[in-house]
Amino acid sequence: MSRVKDENEIVAPGDLLTEEDDVRPSSGVYAEEGKIYSQHIGTVKYGSNSVRVQPMDGRYIPEEGDVVIAEVTRVSYSRWNLDLDSAYEGTLDISEASDQYVDLDEDDLTDFYDVGDAVVVKVTSVSESMDVDLTMLDDRCRKLDEGRIINISPHKVPRVIGRQGTMVQQINEKTNCHVIVGQNGLVWINGENPTVAAEAVKKVEEEAHTDGLTDRIGEWIDEQIEGDQ
Amino acid sequence: MGDEETEWFDEDGNRVDGRKADELRETTMEVGVLDEADGSAMVEIGNTRVIASVFGPQDLHPKHLQESDRAVLKMRYNMAPFSVDDRMSPGPNRRAQEIELVAKKALEPALELEHFPTAGIDISMEVVESDGGTRVTGITAASLALVDAGIPMKGMVSACAAGVVDDTPVLDVNGKEDKEGNADIPIATINRTDDDTESTEEDKITLLQMDGDLTTDQVDDCVSLAKEGCIKLYEQQRRTIMQKYNASEGGEQ
User: Fold this and answer.
1) Is B1 exposed, middle or buried (0-12, 13-18, 19+ CB in 10 A)?
2) Number of Cβ pairs closer than 8 Å across A and B?
3) Which residues on A lie below 8 Å from B190 (Cβ)?
4) In chain B, what residues touch A220 (CB-CB under 8 Å)?
5) What's chain B's Rg over C-alpha atoms?
6) Cβ contacts (< 8 Å) between B153 and chain A: which residues?
7) Per the CB < 8 Å rule, is B148 touching A41?
8) Residue A226 exposure: Cα atoms within 13 Å on the Cβ side
9) Per-residue pLDDT tens digits for A13-72
C-alpha cells in the first residue's frame, strides 16, 4: 500500500493519506475519487488494507457497549435521564436499574438515584436518531458516592486505560487510589492520593501521542509521592 | 479623507499600506485561545482581528430546529462596539444577519454533519477590531476553531477578498480600499493537500459575493487573485493547527 504519511504522523483535515483503490476507509477519514483524506486533526493509523485517523479532540458520541460515567439530571415516573457529557442524553429505565420488583406508585425512584448523583453506567443501545438506552445491570456499574470526577478528552481514554489496563492499574497501585475511566472522558478517582492520581491522568492525556509513556508516568508518580512525604 | 482624490499607488506600485497588489496583509493565527470552548481560534489580518469559538456538537434547543439526519449550525457574527473608529451600536443588525448566513453556507459544505443527527453546533465570530475583510477573516477563524473542536471536515475553509482600486485588481483589501475602492469580491474555498508540499485540488468555492461594479475581466482577475490568497491562508491555518500538537510533543522529551 502506498503510504503518503508515516504511521502515527499528525495530519490535518483534508490531508491526503493514500491514493490506492483497495484500501478501506475506516473511521476519521473519507474517500473521494479513489483517494482517502483525513477528516480530523489526529494521528494516522495504517492497517493491512485499511486506514483510519485517531482524532486529537472532539465530543463523546455514545456507542453500544461503552461503560461511561454519567450524572442524573431528571427523575421521571419510571426512568432517569442522564447527562453523558455528550451531545446526546441517556435514558435509564427502572427495569434496567434493579432486578427486584419496584412498585412505581409506592416506591420513590429517588431512593435509587437522585438528581445530581454520579453513576457508572453501560450503554445498551443507540438508535439511529441517537436515543441512548442505558443499564445498571452489569458488574462494572454502580453509584459513585464519594471521590472526585475529572474531565479528559474521550479520544484519550484508551491511552489512560493502557494496554490491558496497564496504565490505570499502575496509577491505582502507586497512588493507592481507585480510578474508573468512563469511555465518555469522565474519570472518577477515590483513595489516598487523589490529587496525584488526577494529575497523572491529566499528564497521560496531554502526552497521549508520545512513546514510553507508562514508564515515564510511573516514575513521575513515584517522584510526586516521595516529595509529599 | 480631506482631499477628494486618494493616491492608491505610489511610483513603485505599492498600495496605501505599502503592500504589492498581490500581497496579503501580515497575518497571525492562534488556535485554542479560549478555555471553555470546545474549539477556538484567533485570526489577525492586518488590523482586522476576529476570535471564533465552537461549542458542540451539543443538545439543540428549541427542538423544532433539530434535523433528524444531521447536525445544525448556529452562527453568530458580532462586532464589538470598539471595533470601529466610531462607536458601533451593539447587537444584531441586518448586516450581521447576512454575514451569519453566508458564513454558514461557506462552512457547511466542508463539514460532515451527518455524524451528529439532531445535534447543534454553535459557532461564534467576534470581531474585536475591524479594518476591512471581517467576514472572510471570520470564516477563516471559524474553520480553524471547528478543526480544533474535532468536528469532522472534508478540508479546511479559507476565505479572502480581492477588490479593485483605481482599476487595478488587488488582494486582501483593507478598510480604506474597501470603503473607497471600486468594488470587492470575498470568496471562500475548501482546501486539501495532495502531497506534503503542495496544496492543490480544484479548490471548491463556497462563498462568492460582489459589492460594487466590475467588468467581467476584473471579476476573473479578482477571483483568481483571491484564490491564491486562500491557498496562502490555508497553508498558514494548517501550520497553526499542527503546531499546537507538535509543540506539546516536543516539549517533554
Assistant:
1) exposed
2) 102
3) 14
4) none
5) 19
6) 13-14, 39-40
7) yes
8) 6
9) 999 999 888 889 999 999 988 889 999 999 999 988 899 999 988 999 999 999 999 999
Among partner residues B57, B68, B112, which is closest to A87 by beta-carbon distance?
B57
What is the average per-residue pLDDT within A89-111?
90
Model confidence over A137-172: pLDDT tens digits?
999 999 999 999 999 999 999 999 998 999 999 999
How many whole angstroms separate alpha carbon B253 and alpha carbon B251?
Answer: 6
Sheet holding B48-59, edge to edge: B27-31, B39-45, B48-59, B119-129, B72-79
Q: Give the position of cell 494496554.
A: A163
Of the candidates B184, B106, B92, the one whose C-alpha atom is nearest the C-alpha of residue B141 is: B106
The predicted-structure confidence for B159-210, as pLDDT tens digits, reads as follows 999 999 989 999 999 999 999 988 999 999 999 987 544 555 556 899 999 9
Helix (H, G, I), strand (E, B) or coil at B226: helix
Q: At CA A20, angle to CA A15 and CA A26, rounded to 5? A: 65
Question: Does B249 contact A4 at a Cβ distance shorter than 8 Å?
Answer: no
Q: How far is the alpha carbon of A105 from chain B, nearest alpha carbon, in Å?
A: 31
| Angle, helices B134-148/B216-251, rounded to nearest 10 degrees | 30
- CA separation (Å) from B75 to A94, A116, B51, B102, B158? 39, 32, 13, 10, 17
Q: All domains of chain A, ordered by start, with CATH?
A: 10-55 (2.40.50.100), 67-144 (2.40.50.140), 148-228 (3.30.1370.10)
| Residue B240 grid coordinates | 497553526
B193 vs A16, A61, A155: nearest CB:
A16
- Residues A81, A85, A86, A92: what is their CA dihedral angle, to the nearest 10 degrees? -20
**Could you tell me the pLDDT band of residue A175, with boundaries at 50, 70 and 90?**
very high
**Fold (topology level) of B27-243:** Ribosomal Protein S5; domain 2 (3.30.230)
Looking at chain A, which residue has its C-alpha nearest residue B152? Answer: A39
**How close B190 comes to chain A (CA, Å)?**
9
Write out chain A residues lying below 8 Å of B58, CB-based.
59, 87
Give percent of chain B above pLDDT 70. Answer: 92
Question: Which of A59, A63, A89, A126 is best to mutate for the B interface (most B CBs within 10 A)?
Answer: A59
- What burial class does residue B217 get, using C-beta atoms within 10 Å of its C-beta: 0-12 exposed, 13-18 middle, 19+ buried? exposed
